[in-house]
Amino acid sequence: MKEPRVGDEVARRIEEWQRIEREVRARLAPPGKIPVEQLGNGPGLEFLHRIGRGELPSTPIASVMHFVPVQAEPGRMVFQGTPTAEFYNPIGTIHGGYIATMLDSAVGCAVHTMLQNGYGYTTLELKVNFVRALTDGVGPVRAEGRVINLSRQVGIADGRLYDAAGRLYAHATTTCLVFPVPPAAGR
Fold first, then answer.
1. What is the mean pLDDT of residues 22-48?
2. Any residues with CB less than 8 A from the CB of 102 and at least 6 apart, and which?
3. What pLDDT, in 10s, does the model give residues 101-118?
4. DSSP label at 78?
5. SS3 state of residue 69
6. Can you give the CATH number for the domain in which 162 is found?
7. 22: CB partners within 8 A, 6+ apart
8. How many CA atoms lie within 13 A of 163 on its CB side?
9. Is 171 contained in some domain?
10. Which helix (H) or strand (E) holds 72?
């Protein structure tokens, strides 16, 4: 029996990631502003699942930058996108802002997955380290955030941006402020 080659495994993973991305895009609602009161209608993870199911508007920045949420679970969030030449910087690679935006979304939303009903967050600090150049020939990439620690007022998470072969392009850490949000009308 012939052993699969590493390139075959990566090609299968790319196909799987692309299939998942198509399915997510088909479910997402058009982008729009979500009222802050919606944050108080349930735990953070459920809020993110409602976006993923198309029950709330999708995030405008993700729409503009062509990435989507593909996984959300307690303490972990994954976004996926395929960088294109429209995100190039003057030196011919994907702009660091594209990478930082995906990572900021992943690490911030990882914190959000852990929030209780009635709480929101905002980023206080984001640090990104770029490991290798990202180009439009790489294919889909994923930004994965994981919570390191969550207290009553502060969430800390780290994240990685990697491709289907597992190559790391950047990593990040964040510190988020956790705060109560106004209750939804009628509650």
1. 91
2. 65, 67, 79, 81, 141, 143, 161
3. 999 999 999 999 999 998
4. E
5. strand
6. 3.10.129.10
7. none
8. 19
9. yes
10. strand 67-73
Distance CA 58, CA 14 (A): 24
Residue 4 has pLDDT above 70, yes or no: no
- pTM greater than 0.90: yes
The answer as to whether 129 is a domain residue is: yes
d(CA 114, CA 150): 8
What range does the domain containing 134 cover? 6-180
Instruction: Give pLDDT tens digits for 65-104.
Output: 999 999 999 999 999 999 999 999 999 999 999 999 999 9
pLDDT value at residue 1: 57
DSSP line for 121-184: EEEEEEEEEE-S---TTS--EEEEEEEEEE-SSEEEEEEEEEETT--EEEEEEEEEEEEE-PPP
Residue with structure tokens 């969030």?
77
**Does residue 137 sit within a domain?**
yes
Q: Which residues contact 97 (CB under 8 A, 6 or more apart)?
A: none
From CA 127, how far away is CA 172, in angstroms rounded? 5
Interatomic CA distance for residues 101 and 116, integer angstroms: 25
Number of domains in the chain: 1
Indicate the angle between helix axes 96-112 and 44-52, nearest 10 degrees.
130
d(CA 140, CA 11): 11
